[in-house]
Amino acid sequence: MFSLREPLGAELRDVLKEYDDLSALLLAGRGITSSEDAEVFLSPSYDAHIHDPMLIKNMPVAAARLAKAIETKEKIAVWSDYDCDGIPGGVLLHDFLKKAKANFVNYIPHRHDEGYGVNKMGLEKLRNDGVSLVVTVDSGIVDNEAVAYGNSLGLEIIVTDHHEPQDELPPALAVIDPKQEGETYPFRELCGAGLAWKLACATLQRGWKGREEIPPGWEKWLLDMAGLATIADMVPLVGENRVIARYGLLVMRKSPRLGFQKLCRVARVNQRSITEDDVGFMIAPRVNAASRMGNPMDAFRLFTTEDEVEADELAKLLEKINRSRRAMVGSVTRAVHERLSERETIPDVIVMGDPEWRPGLLGLVANSLAEEYSRPVFLWGKEGSGIIKGSCRAGRKSVNVVDLMSAAGDVLIQFGGHSQSGGFSVRDDAVFFLEENLCAALAAVEATARHESVLADAELAPDHATHDLLRRLERFAPFGMGNPKPVFALRNVEIESVSWFGKSGEHLKIRIVREFGTPLEGVCFYAKRELGIGTEFVATGTKAQVLGSLELDQFSRGRPVRLRLVSIV
Q1: Residues of the chain with pLDDT under 70
Q2: What three-state secondary structure class fits 516?
Q3: Phi, psi dihedral angles at 237 (to 5 degrees)
Q4: Which residues lie closer than 8 Å to 300 by C-beta, 6 or more apart?
Q5: Is residue 268 part of a domain?
Q6: pLDDT score at 450
Q7: Is the Cα torsion angle 195, 201, 207, 209 positive or negative in sign?
Q8: Which of 156, 111, 121, 119 is nearest to 140 (CA)?
Q9: pLDDT at residue 532, as a whole number
Q10: What is the DSSP letter of 452?
């Protein structure tokens, strides 16, 4: 099912009169109702739309302390998370501190041996190594006990994190988290690496003896990593994130990082024209695979090495690991489907686990299943430490998984995350009651299970799916959470041909008849999962209502415009 966006009223159309009908409609659909806001959205400016980092709560304290450590050659440790937010954040602080000629090390906890967040064992290692100041990236906001322990060792800790804080903040020297109480910063949706970049900018602004050796504007080169993380971590691509993502892509296209260049090659991504889709579907999974299947330091070293041979070897290693990751994700997904098929009814919250499942892979599986079944999914496995850990995904916007876990009672040892995704650990004796507790919690938070109809932005005739239209839409990029790709409705079109491709025939390709010229091609990867029952009825010679977004076919001669299918009725 789908519905069409309501046309603009006369008053709003007049306000957006300098824009064509489609652009005005898309702007209004994104909540933009003034010409000033439209200009900011369509023409994001680094100089005009990046806010002063010193406006972030506790940032002046953090920047002053980091600047002092740089100047006095204290040993600094950058403690970053092991995903495609924390790793790029760690890389950009590595580059900044190296440029500042600081005395520092980077530390990334091993997912399977140490688990998520700041831990006592890692802090002990750093203290024994002579570290006096620890700066976290994308972690630490819920690690109150570990931070307190670090203090007892004589460590000073600056926490930079963007996850939801608990009622009590960690006892750090400074807590940088836009979501904490009392924050007045104009934009509160930065990712972890975005905050790390802000800390670097603030420290440059604060200054130290030797600061003058770094040329003005050098920090812009760090936007490749900040932009990579902003896109990969699925934070809303609005406001300041939109500026970071757009400029980040510009830096990525000309980035001199050997590892990034090599990774683009093995992933078959054209670096000079890299897009947010390339980052989200090709680059980020390979970075994340390092921690899910191996050692996150491999991804870190890939982005920081200046040795071409090492860069080549590490890029190939991540590619190999990613292939293994895909195979294991497929195996777990099949296992969940088999178990669900044996049940008479599917519960409102799907909860499954296996001690043999790797917790680091379960977020990918949970995301796929949550979308397929339109309900929260919680999957668990066991870390090398023997602790039961898992990942969860909301599956529908009306459910906040953090609220859901909060309402689940004491079955969970620890949990955290965003509204749409999270992680948790659970007691061995409580795992058998996890589904029951979460289903009861779902009722308690009054979330509703429903399939919402897809909202199409506008109708489109197949002949009007042109390069010219796609160029007009590119002004709205980069697309992502909070700024989805425009979706078009093609009504009563004729399907000229239908074909299935991929190793198991899991991907769908259709050709739509045009009045003039060659047919318009439409594709959907993992079509039965993404399109549901619509795929059962699509056939050559039939008429259909088709929904999709426009994109370039990068792998066909002439790079024609095609549809990325969203729905077929």
Answers
A1: 1, 384-386, 396-398, 446-453, 529, 532-534
A2: coil
A3: -90, 65
A4: 87, 90, 91, 94, 106, 108
A5: no
A6: 42
A7: positive
A8: 119
A9: 66
A10: P
465 and 426 share one domain: no
3-state class (DSSP) for residue 204: helix
In a domain, 525, yes or no: yes
What are the structure tokens assigned to 112, written together? 């399977």
Residue 43, class by beta-carbon neighbours within 10 Å (0-12 exposed, 13-18 middle, 19+ buried)?
exposed
Which pLDDT value is given to residue 448?
A: 40
Whether 545 is covered by a domain: the verdict is: yes
Nearest to 262 by CA among 220, 223, 298: 298
Q: Note whether 359 and 488 are same-domain residues.
A: no
Boundary residue ending a domain (444, 466, 498) = 444
Q: Which residue has the tokens 């699925």?
A: 234
Provide the residue range defining the domain that includes 366.
343-444
Residues 488 and 426 placed together within one structural domain of the fold: no
Predicted confidence at residue 113, as pLDDT, reads 76
Please check whether residue 470 is in contact with residue 561, taking contact to mean a CB–CB distance below 8 angstroms.
yes
Do 427 and 547 lie in a common domain?
no
Cis status, amide bond into 478, omega within 30 of 0: yes
Does one domain contain both 462 and 490?
yes
Per DSSP, the residues of 291-324 read HHHS-HHHHHHHHH---HHHHHHHHHHHHHHHHH
Let me know the angle formed at the C-alpha of 424 by 84 and 347, rounded to the nearest 5 degrees.
110
DSSP state of 307: -
pTM, two decimal places? 0.85
How confident is the model at residue 568, as a pLDDT?
87
How buried is 98 (Cβ within 10 angstroms: 0-12 exposed, 13-18 middle, 19+ buried)? Answer: exposed
Q: Where a domain ends, among 153, 188, 220? A: 220
Mapped to the 3 state alphabet, what secondary structure does 153-185 carry?
A: CCCEEEEECCCCCCCCCCCCCEEECCCCCCCCC
Task: Give the position of tokens 């390709």.
Answer: 509
Give the whole-angstrom CA distance, residue 161 versus residue 81: 10
Tens-place pLDDT, residues 99-111: 999 999 999 998 7
pLDDT of amino acid 395: 78
The predicted pLDDT at position 174 comes to 98
With respect to residue 326, please indicate whether it lies within any of the assigned structural domains: no
Dihedral of CA atoms 13, 15, 18, 22 in degrees, nearest 10, equals -30
The Cα angle at residue 120 between residues 116 and 123, in degrees rounded to 5: 100
